[in-house]
Amino acid sequence: MIAHDGMFIDGEWRPAAGPDTIEVVNPADEQVIGTVPAGTAEDVDAAVRAARAALPGWAATPPAERGRHLAALRDALDARREEIAATVVAELGSPTRFAQRVHTGLPIAVTGSCAELAATHPFEEKIGNSTVLHEPVGVVGAITPWNYPLHQVVVKVAPALAAGCTVVLKPAEDTPLTARLFAECVAAAGIPAGVFNLVTGLGAVAGQALAEHPGVDLVSFTGSTAVGKRIGAIAGAAVKRVTLELGGKSANVILPGADLAKAVAANVADVCRNTGQSCNAWTRTLVHADDYEEAVALAAEAVAAYTPGDPADPDVRLGPLVNAAQHARVRGYIDRGVAEGARLAAGGSDVPEGREKGYFVRPTVFADVTPEMTIAQEEIFGPVLSFIKYTDEDEAARIANGTVYGLGGAVWAADDATAAAFARRMDTGQVDINGGGFNLLAPFGGHKQSGIGRELGTHGLAEFLQTKSLQF
Hints:
- The chain has 472 residues and is of the alpha/beta class.
- The protein has helices spanning 41-60, 63-79, 81-92, 96-120, 151-163, 176-188, 203-212, 225-237, 260-272, 292-303, 324-339, 374-377, 393-400, 416-423, 457-462; strands at residues 2-3, 7-9, 12-14, 21-26, 31-37, 124-127, 130-136, 139-143, 166-170, 196-198, 218-222, 241-245, 250-254, 282-288, 343-346, 364-369, 384-390, 409-412, 432-433, 451-452, 465-471.
- 40% of the residues lie in helices and 21% in strands.
- It starts with a strand and ends with a strand.
- The model has no long low-confidence stretch (mean pLDDT 98).
């Protein structure tokens, strides 16, 4: 166990204002692997002051030079990719290969894309007799979740720095060790002091202080819808910019004529990805009545390949949930699904055999789920898949759009045109067509209560810019 001390403020590690600490627990064996300081409002104030002092110089730095700094940050992250991946395995419980490929590889690639955007984005444009300037919004307060501890940091910090903003980051208390590694990489990249600052702490203390601080111009938050509403209210009272990436209950719609086996296998893989702890996971599978029982049987067979195990084992595909509260929450939802009449086709709330230690859960498939059931409406955030039957496309569209969320989704059909036509009816921010691959330059974000704003690519960069027009 390593007892970390200090906050990264104004380019150096400084002692925390208070004595309290946060324990970091390995969810696979419930052992404490480290501690970090529990930041206070005083720590947040020091970090915001440093960010405000650094803002004029960083905003005036030519975009191409900001891009070179981000390229150096990408290289610094890449040089420590094995250490980063191992840290994500230890504090999140992510399976090793997923930690290496996604938790580490993806944010390195996103940082590189932001380096290119900084050098190529048109920060000025001519509209008639006006010159329109796209300027940094100012100091950004970034509050990130535990489920993608480096990626969610990067999709906020990298575009904010590319835009010319300075940043104060408050990472999730469950996974702060990865954020500390990121701060060390920022220092190694030579990014000027005060441009990036890190305060670890509890959301109710450090997170709220950051959201409320008058020196913060924009709050960028990823997490639960309940907390997002609270942050939105704080920002609204201060007339402060806010971006919110919140919950989801994404539908995977399988239309008649689609490759059923391929669609179901992809769905099972998606809902088991990151142990189901992905806000855009396809947790509702909509299947035509004629294909329904076959699809359920395929899912029950496919999910058997996802045996919960030690995430440090490179052959394991399903690790533990992040903490005891999440463990109890997911198992509680499974029990509620059974109580409300859903048919358990695979899995259940029983602890997996041989996994009494750690926050492991059995991947679960429900059949006979109706749209109004709790498991079809609320975000579970675990490897739990609900199969819902429909009779025609109009009913499928009503079911797909019938939650308060609208983050992700998928459509499978005999051809891309048919799938795309249905996807246009879905009230959601992103839809994968017949297994379309992830695009790190495409805008990511939600409709309805899944959030406000977008991440990634030019759309993600634009969230950290404000416009000024000069008339000639």
